[in-house]
Amino acid sequence: MAPNTSLVTTVQVRNLVRRYDERAVLDGLDLDIAPGEFVALLGKSGSGKSTLLRALAGLDPDVDGSGEVAVPANVSVVFQDSRLLPWARVLDNVVLGLSGAEERGRRSLDEVGLAGREKAWPNELSGGEQQRVALARSLVREPELLLADEPFGALDALTRLKMHALLRQLCAAHQPAVLLVTHDVDEAIVLADRVIVLDAGRIVTSEIIDLSAPRSAADPGFAAIRARLLDALGVLV
Ligand SMILES: Nc1ncnc2c1ncn2[C@@H]1O[C@H](COP(=O)(O)OP(=O)(O)OP(=O)(O)O)[C@@H](O)[C@H]1O
């Protein structure tokens, strides 16, 4: 999906600082995400990816007040585990808190390939299906910004590939801006318009991915991008 090149940004972060004790985990971080732009965030373990996501989601009241974090009011978050409520049926999980949204909820479940499973309980679904419900629950709210913290990290390789295709399709249809945290360099290249790398609390690399869709690791150009990103991550190639 091509990013909207409008001057208005969906996310604008300036000089974001987050300290734990005296240590700056986010150290004066700047980030812009355009409307409809899909940004993947890579970084070594402990580099601050989840901390950044939590700050953008408004889930961290302790970020340093001197910086700026501007995000839209309508933000949805998807995590590695689906966080479905076990006592609520699938459709109720999707529309929880949205009055009169049953029909929209059904359409969302249809979009993620779960038509007919509205009345199932979460524990009757596979891990991949539960993540589909989590995506439906996010997208039924038509977020301007979708934050995703390793949403496919717990899934097997085949299910992951199917989820990549689904997410691309959903993003093309709904056009949210997306920030996806992942450890998987190939996943980042396959999905994103732009891949950024976080190191020592700052963004050290920003790589526009201009490969045409559908993308695969066999594409000419893919290996060169992967090598640059692995280099930025400090991995020898
Ligand atoms: N509540 C906390 N108290 C103290 N330190 C914390 C807390 N939460 C996170 N940290 C520290 O902040 C740093 C960044 O953590 P964060 O979870 O953002 O990293 P990450 O890049 O998402 O890592 P991973 O890839 O392993 O999930 C880590 O060194 C972590 O120990």
Automatic annotation (TrEMBL):
SMART domains in the record: AAA
Keywords in alphabetical order: ATP-binding, Cell membrane, Membrane, Nucleotide-binding, Translocase, Transport
Pfam families found in the cross-reference section: ABC_tran (PF00005)
Domain of life of the source: Bacteria
GO molecular function: ATP binding
Every ABC transporter domain range: 11-225
Name listed for the protein in its UniProt record: ABC transporter ATP-binding protein
